Amino acid sequence: MSLVVSGLSISIGGTLVVDDISFSVPDGQRFGIIGESGSGKSMTALALLGLLPEEALVTGSILYQDRELVGLRDRDFAAVRGDQIGIVFQEPQTALSPLRRLGAQMTAALRIHYTLSRAQAQEAAIDLATRVGLPNPESIVRAYPHQVSGGQRQRAAIAAAIAAGPDLLVADEPTTALDVTVQAEILDLFRRLSEEGGTSLIFITHDLAVLRQIADRMIVLDGGRVVEQGSVTSVLRNPQHPSTRALVAAAHATAWKRPEARP
Ligand SMILES: Nc1ncnc2c1ncn2[C@@H]1O[C@H](COP(=O)(O)OP(=O)(O)OP(=O)(O)O)[C@@H](O)[C@H]1O
């Protein structure tokens, strides 16, 4: 079992934003966390990555490959991030500096762990660009973020997240800022990466139509609590909680606009 979260609670400034949630993600599984805005999805993701605001109080347990992450020192968490757990955010701009070439950014995590010559770094960047389906890898690694499209920036951010070969990728609304066609391509990429590399994926979204394209199992968060869990197919077929029903209705309402995303 790659990740086991038990009784995780997070409070910030005395407010409980994540309330006693538990879930587990076996090796290689694609797992969805869904909920309306403010339900605690991002706080859960940030807790897995040791990136919560300093004033956050965390209790419970996050076991990753049998190692307890709650209470880990910043320095140790930094080693886990990138190396064992990769992160992809909604806005590739958050992950990518506008001032550095894509190739250097894609290989940043690698260069923390290995001393690479210029030629080796270049080769690794081209290899990563190829793996994430960037066009003309040899030239795109020399481009700056503003010189490529939003979808290509997200591919580069994904390349940076997988560079050091993490066993788990956490993706927080990674397709929300993209148009529907590009969104579908990025979902394909996540699926391919997890199938080829056996990487587990935690995919966070408010959109059930997106989630059904990528995840096998899921939890639904509402007010910081898990209100429903199970396989994506069964939750879609038979939603129990009112907030899950609202998510299903929203997914149906947008489905006519995007036939490939029909729930
Ligand atoms: N830095 C912070 N300090 C205090 N409260 C915060 C902070 N960041 C988020 N919160 C609160 O924590 C709760 C959970 O927020 P979180 O960002 O996890 O929700 P979310 O489900 O990811 O929403 P969204 O889809 O809008 O990103 C919200 O009520 C939010 O207002």
From TrEMBL:
Q: Which SUPFAM superfamilies match?
A: P-loop containing nucleoside triphosphate hydrolases
One Pfam family cited in the UniProt record for this chain: ABC_tran
- Its primary localisation, in coarse terms, equals membrane
Q: What GO terms are given for molecular function?
A: ATP binding; ATP hydrolysis activity
What species is this protein from?
Klugiella xanthotipulae
Q: Which GO terms describe its cellular component?
A: plasma membrane
Q: Which InterPro entries does UniProt cross-reference here? A: AAA+_ATPase, ABC_Ni/Peptide_Import, ABC_transporter-like_ATP-bd, ABC_transporter-like_CS, P-loop_NTPase
The record's similarity note reads: Belongs to the ABC transporter superfamily.
Give the bilayer topology: Peripheral membrane protein
Where in the cell is the protein located? Cell membrane
Q: Could you tell me what this protein is called?
A: Peptide/nickel transport system ATP-binding protein
Signal peptide residue numbers = none
User: Looking at the keywords, is Glycoprotein present?
Assistant: no
Show where the ABC transporter domain sits: 3-248
Q: Which UniProt keywords apply?
A: ATP-binding, Cell membrane, Membrane, Nucleotide-binding, Transport
